[in-house]
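JOB MANIFEST
job_type = single_chain_structure
chain_count = 1
residues = 221
[input]
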Amino acid sequence: MTSPSQPAAASSRDRILARIRAAVAGAPEAPEPERRYLDRHAPNEPAALVDLLHENLADYRAVVHRTDAAGLAGLIGRLLSDHGARSVAVPPGLPGGWLSGTAADVEILPDDGTLTPHRLDGTAAVVTGCAVAVAETGTIVLDGGPAQGRRALTLVPDLHVCVVRVPEQVVASVPLALPRLDPTRPLTWISGPSATSDIELDRVEGVHGPRRLEVVLVAEG
């Protein structure tokens, strides 16, 4: 008794593959196709990139502010006050002057190793810098550098105030951002406030990180 269909199917396959191999036996190797991928779609002028970053950040529901170095501390202090933040977590390498405009009654909590997740859960805000910002996608990347700190700092508090130095930290696209980043570092890619639509497609913010993202584009020089 012959076996069912599998041997016949395998035999037919083998015959077809044998015919293909015989037909192409003398054919030269096909050259690799030349691929010329664009590394950006946006213009590369610094001012245009900053404008595009601003637009895309806002499209992701981040609140965007612009200032210069002289106005940075006052702006951060006002943002914390406007949100009623009475405690703020601070990465170990955050420039000291950034919080010089913060009200005296705001508790500043340096990340000295004692900020447990429970303590951070009771902390209203965190202020950090960033590693790079991508204009085309409205994405901010943190890499755990001195002005950013460990990931928990930016995932637990409800408000994240993130400072982006422009234009030097702004790139057009993800392919241009990657060479600036060390893949062995803890990279966090932020596109707007944390949000999910997993439950009945209703958008809920603050599920996986801060509910509110305030981005400060600071022109230095």
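[summary]
The domain at 46-219 is CATH 3.40.50.10420 (Rossmann fold).
The two ends are 87 Å apart (CA to CA).
exit_status = 0
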